Amino acid sequence: MKRLIYKITLCIISSAIFTSCEDLDVENTNQPDLVQALASADDVKSLLDGSTTNAFTHLIGFTGIYMNLMADQTTTTNAYLSFWNFADQPRVQINNSSTNADLGSHVGSNWSSLNNYIYSANTVIDLIEFKGNTMIVDDVDKTQEMLATAYFVKGLCQGYISLLFDKAYIVNPDTDLAALEFKTYKELNDVAIQNLDTAISLAQSDSSISLKIHNAYTIDNATFIKLANSFAAKILINLPRTKAEASTTDYNKVLTYVNKGITEDFNPPTDGGYQFFNNMQDWSTYTLSDGAGYLPTDIKIASLFDETYPKDYPTDASVTPEPANSSDPRLDEYFEYVTAFGFLRESRGRELFTNYRHRRYFTNNDRGTDPGLSTDIFHTEELDYIKAEATLYASGAGAAKTILDNSVRFTKGGITTGGTPEEIEKALFYEYSIELDLGSTIGTQWMFMRRHDLLQTGTPLQFPVPGTELEITGDQLYTFGGESNGSQEGTADGSNSWNGN
């Protein structure tokens, strides 16, 4: 069994680099030797640059659709690639069976892709730290820069695996793959932060270190350090699965990272070649010929703008809610009221209907081919909200209110925030749902809602290890979600559900 696990794990984490893993039971005797595959420093840098680009692309990619459906940011009754399963009410379990044809679209993609990028980072760390190689590229010593980048990519991807899955592997260059065991998401999160700290330390020791995001965009040393600190803050605060668990977060540590974080939006432009673009936005803003959104805005958004608005769409087919009313100009700037229902089907639950689509970030149904469009990976507004939340629990509501009253909540939305803890939490929920809608990395709203117990009963709080991996390693198949499982670990109990469901 150990030898089989070794074969499978190595195949999963190296598939993007070396070979296809379609036949997991057949040993690949032709797999190229690492030294042959990476014959020069240029080859190593290409591997690392590609993994950096791909890691960021994944964090604004397709899988975010499923998390937005679970967070009621988006709604649908479209069963394509199991979309409807993640939006349906009452909530249903994630189908984690290895026979589920859509497993790779939601659970599997996050697992395999992020682990692949960790493997690439480990390859670079191994060549430099363990094998003592010096990386000279175009007559310039890139050794420290590549090492800092590798630790950043590794920490970033480990961090997101810890946010998404209940457990995972911790793999280092010297790890015995034959003895791999699953570690908890908390253990992985600790290691992720350590690796981000290493990247920060390396960058601080050499001001020439920069970070190449894609072929047309590189950030300088100071921005690299700020970005790594920002992601460390985000990965720390997003870890808890419940409000009770969130009470154990080290908010002062979060604030230490926040205070060294970005001062300008981290918004690398699209490359115009469908290689670096926000695919989550592309799908979510797609508008049908009747004016409806393909993945339309959930009614939750309208109900936050207008507290008199229904929280579930009326099931009476003769009733169509009027447009929401709000003094917040973002209602009409970011969203559009439409009477067409597009692909929404009454037979699959009219309570899932909506009259709104995403207007913000809409670019004529294509965000991939035009160079220079926004990718919206990390806005300063999000760091403001992280700071306000951490400050609320570390220093009190008064200081948190000051942060929010100096943020876009007031400057753009015209909203002054109340001064109680409950009002601060309500304001943060509002801003995460509206200002950060499609303007952050995958799962941002879902993670906020789970740590405040705002998700509907039965919503998965985390993803299971993919059934395809469990089947091969011989571990028991398991999953999360389902209304009847609301009292079980890993599934929302609905104790503070935003809509009472």
Automatic annotation (TrEMBL):
Polar residues: bias regions: 485-501
Region: Disordered, residue numbers: 480-501
Domain of life: Bacteria
InterPro entries reported in the protein's UniProt record: TPR-like_helical_dom_sf
Residue spans crossing the bilayer: none
PROSITE patterns on file: PROKAR_LIPOPROTEIN
UniProt protein name: RagB/SusD domain-containing protein
Annotated organism of origin: Cellulophaga lytica (strain ATCC 23178 / DSM 7489 / JCM 8516 / NBRC 14961 / NCIMB 1423 / VKM B-1433 / Cy l20)
Record lineage: Bacteria, Pseudomonadati, Bacteroidota, Flavobacteriia, Flavobacteriales
